[in-house]
Amino acid sequence: MKQAKQWLKTRAKGSERYGIVASSGAKRLRADGIDIKSKITPEHWFLNLDTDVRSSYYLEEVATEFDIQGLEIDYTCVAWDINFYFDQEWKYQAFKGNT
User: Is 95 inside any structural domain?
Assistant: First the structure.
């Protein structure tokens, strides 16, 4: 994750916005610092400056596809869990229960 965050910071120029977006089904990424159950406040995430810990620039709060629906971001680290994976082709499955 550290490498992905550094990549985002070095690519963005000027006022280009960057942040982390995770699949709403990515429930097992907490160990990697990605907690989708911790809800963002979209206006802070999209509008606040890079000095605000609530902004996308700070790379601490993670948005889901539903949080950012219809909004744009210039550079994104996209994270997903076992709900979306590659096995000779991209596959999707619902994450249910305790497995």
Answer: no
Is 62:8 a contact under the CB 8 Å cutoff? no
Q: What are phi and psi of 45, to 5 degrees?
A: -60, -40
Q: Please write the tens of the pLDDT for every residue from 36-88.
A: 888 999 999 999 999 999 999 999 999 998 998 888 899 999 888 777 778 89
Q: How many CB atoms lie within 10 A of CB 25?
A: 19
Give the E-state strand segments of 7-83 in sequence order: 18-22, 62-64, 75-79
Name the one residue in this structure whose structure tokens are 């206006």. 43
- Cα separations (Å) of 88 from 25, 80, 83, 85, 91? 21, 17, 15, 10, 9
pLDDT band at 27 (very low <50, low <70, confident <90, very high): confident
| Residue 92 included in any domain | no
| Domain-located, residue 98 | no
